Amino acid sequence: MSTDGQLVSIVLPMYNAASYLPQTIESVISQTYARWELIVVDDHSTDRSLEIVNRYAGDDPRIRIVQMPANSGRPAVPRNAGLRGVRGDWVAFIDADDLWHPQKLDLQLGCLREHDGEFCFTDVAVFRNAQSIAALMARRFPASEMPCSVVGHAKLLWKNVIKSGSSVVLKRAVLDGRLFDERPEYKAIEDYLLWLELHQHRIKQSYWLRQKLVFYRLSASGISRGKTGMLRKNVRLYREYVSNGRPLGVRAYLYMASYVLLSVSRETRFFLTGVLRNVSAFLRWRSS
Asked: How far apart are alpha carbons 86 and 10 in whole angstroms?
């Protein structure tokens, strides 16, 4: 399978994202792989988001806009509207406040070509301002520096290692008409559910590029930040998910326990990192 010259359709849902959109769109325009189309789906924004995208679309014919008639209140709806209009051989996603490394598409398509793969995702770095990731954005990677892991359905059930939908590139044919679940109770985990279903029914495995090629912006309003709410959503997913024609049964409780333990471990690590950062800043101040 060759990915040379094949079109990548990128779906970008947006709602009142004027503060971040220029950086996000610029990170797509800056891709070293230039054969792409960007489908921006406006979920009835009330700020300057649509004006900003119209300006970019006027300068670059690869950018087109889909407007929702009313605000849906959840990202699955505009994502699905974008998916219905894709033209490319490959599909990628980017959220309106995330950024891509300039080589992201190039390196992922190279991985897919090398392994004859159909689904690829990358590591993700979190940030609060673009200045903090300037060095990472400026780094250039030769293909030889692309360590890659294989992920199957069983591993994905134990842990959602796909940290951001903005990191995913998949073959359009893999979707086979499948869309994100638009039910409100699956808001913020609709992507995890779709990745599970694709790994179970459509692909044997995906490829995980172990480099930080996607930059996830931390914000107080992020819908995936409420820990209790996310726990409830994951409990629902495991209780309702069907594997090999059967509910998970007892395994659902094991997956729930794994989710809780990993979440506690991650939060503890973030807390300790913050403490060490503050102590280091204090010591530098004392010595200055």
From this structure: 8
